[in-house]
């Protein structure tokens, strides 16, 4: 089907709703803020339990990844994402959702070939680039310290 350029531009203008865009932006902002507040509360909880600050932050990250993974496995995280928009997709919880969602799509193929083989399908590139740039920055920092 061919649509003339003017008709296409008119169609785009009518389909873009500025109020909806601002509403989605506010939802993402506040839900992301609530997720960060939850993370800070976890850090404080772990510190009250006697862990040092760095260990508390590591445990908070692990806890958020674990919660997001469990919610993704049961299909709840996608429903939260529809309401909260990018506010829950951008932080580390979105990383966990990407890993679990990719493997859950292939669960009918079995544990080894389905779940295990596909867990890093979406997030594998992120891990590889993170390791590469971490090494590169560390190497440059090391060279800089020699000067």
Features:
mainly alpha, 147 residues
Explain the overall architecture.
79% of the residues lie in helices and 0% in strands. It contains seven helices and no strands. It has a domain at 31-119. It is an all-alpha fold and 147 residues long. It has helices at residues 5-15, 18-48, 53-73, 76-84, 92-104, 111-118, 124-146. The model has no long low-confidence stretch (mean pLDDT 83). The chain starts with a helix and ends with a helix. Helix 3 packs parallel to helix 5 (92-104).
Q: Which regions have little confidence, pLDDT < 50, spanning 5+ residues?
A: none
Residue share in helices? over 70%
Tell me the radius of gyration: 21 Å
Distance between the termini: 64 Å
Characterize the overall form.
extended
Query: What is the chains' assembly state?
Result: single chain
> Quick check: average pLDDT?
83
Compact description:
By secondary structure, this protein is mainly alpha-helical. It has seven helices and no strands.
Q: Strands, helices and their partners?
A:
Elements: H1 5-15, H2 18-48, H3 53-73, H4 76-84, H5 92-104, H6 111-118, H7 124-146
């Amino acid at each position: 089907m061919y649509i003339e350029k003017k008709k296409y531009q008119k169609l785009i203008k009518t389909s873009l709703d500025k109020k909806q865009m601002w509403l989605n932006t506010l939802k993402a902002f506040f839900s992301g803020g609530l997720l960060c507040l939850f993370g800070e509360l976890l850090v404080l909880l772990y510190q009250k339990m006697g862990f040092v600050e760095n260990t508390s932050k590591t445990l908070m990250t692990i806890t958020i990844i674990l919660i997001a993974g469990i919610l993704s496995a049961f299909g709840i995280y996608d429903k939260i994402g529809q309401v909260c928009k990018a506010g829950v997709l951008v932080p580390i919880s979105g990383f966990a959702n990407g890993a679990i969602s990719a493997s859950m799509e292939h669960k009918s193929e079995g544990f080894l070939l389905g779940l295990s083989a596909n867990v890093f399908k979406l997030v594998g590139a992120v891990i590889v680039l993170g390791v590469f740039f971490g090494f590169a920055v560390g190497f440059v920092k090391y060279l800089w310290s020699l000067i």
